[in-house]
Amino acid sequence: MDITKSKGFLYAGGILLGIGAIKKYQLSRSGSTNLEAKRVKTKSYQYKLPNLPYQFSALQPVVSKETMELHHNKHEQAYVDGMNSTFAALDRVRGKGYDSKARQGMRYSLGQKAAFSVSGAILHELFWKNIKGKGTKPSASLLSQIKTDFGSLDMFMQEFFDTTKPIQGSGWGVLVYSPEICKLIVLPVQNHEDNWIPNAKVLMVIDVWEHAYYLDYQNRRGDYLKKIMNDINWDVVSSRYEQAIRVKPEINFK
Ligand SMILES: [Fe+2]
């Protein structure tokens, strides 16, 4: 006889299921015991700071060796540390369940910290690669797009300068290409994470946080910006552009 098909077994099973449901309800209402048992195992994150792709002195005299050492080893390191601590904290908060107002608030601030630290770390890596390129020029296709959108390379440089220099406090001048509208756009990004366009591809970034120039230029952000813009690595920017125009847009506005 198959015991699982007997009336007694089904009755007992129903009672057990009923007790289980009541217990689950009680635990979800009253305590952390059940939630603790379900705790997500906290992962340890070990994102590491990539090496600078050239010597710390490579940008002299535009940016001093001392500035570059501090910028890479201390400031960018802080964003990488921030990624590790933010995701570890998110795991801890997730593992403790969804029953406390305080944890709901922490999720909001950890979401902000994730945006800040991940954007900061990525922007610095893009930045190191798209500078130190004295003597390079935009590719023919990028130059053609620049002329279409800005009028000329000089007019683009002026627009980039005018958009970036007045950024209040800390930020980045960012050139993006939007596959959705087929245009180059200069964005004055605040901190690391504000003033973005979704789906836009980043072609070139210039750091205008004070830590990027203050030792060498004090409050003269414009002087720093003019000089560093003469050191753009157009080979890298052109290569990013070639990749960006191959991206199939998700939205068609035509
Ligand atoms: Fe920076």
Write the layout of secondary structure elements.
Elements: H1 7-30, H2 33-37, H3 65-95, H4 101-130, H5 140-150, H6 153-164, E1 171-178, E2 183-190, E3 201-207, H7 214-217, H8 221-229, H9 234-244
Antiparallel strand pairs: 1-2, 1-3
Bound molecules: fe (ii) ion (FE2).
* Annotated CATH homologous superfamily of the domain at 140-244: Iron/manganese superoxide dismutase, C-terminal domain
Largest sheet: 3 strands, antiparallel
Helicity range: 40-55%
Order of strands, widest sheet? 2-1-3
CATH class of the domain at 140-244: Alpha Beta
Terminal Cα separation, in Å?
Answer: 70 Å
Q: Could you state the oligomeric state of the chains shown?
A: single chain
Return the average pLDDT rounded to an integer.
Answer: 86
Q: What bound compounds does this protein have? A: fe (ii) ion
Low-confidence stretches: 1-40
Q: Rg from C-alpha positions?
A: 26 Å
Description:
The chain has 9 helices and 3 strands; from the N terminus they run ααααααβββααα. With 254 residues, the protein is mainly alpha-helical. Among the domains are: 66 residues, Helix Hairpins, CATH 1.10.287.990; 105 residues, minor pseudopilin epsh fold, CATH 3.55.40. The structure holds fe (ii) ion. The site of fe (ii) ion (FE2) has 7 residues, from α3.
Main attributes?
minor pseudopilin epsh fold, disordered N terminus, 3-stranded antiparallel β-sheet, Helix Hairpins, 254 residues, 54% helix, binds fe (ii) ion, mainly alpha
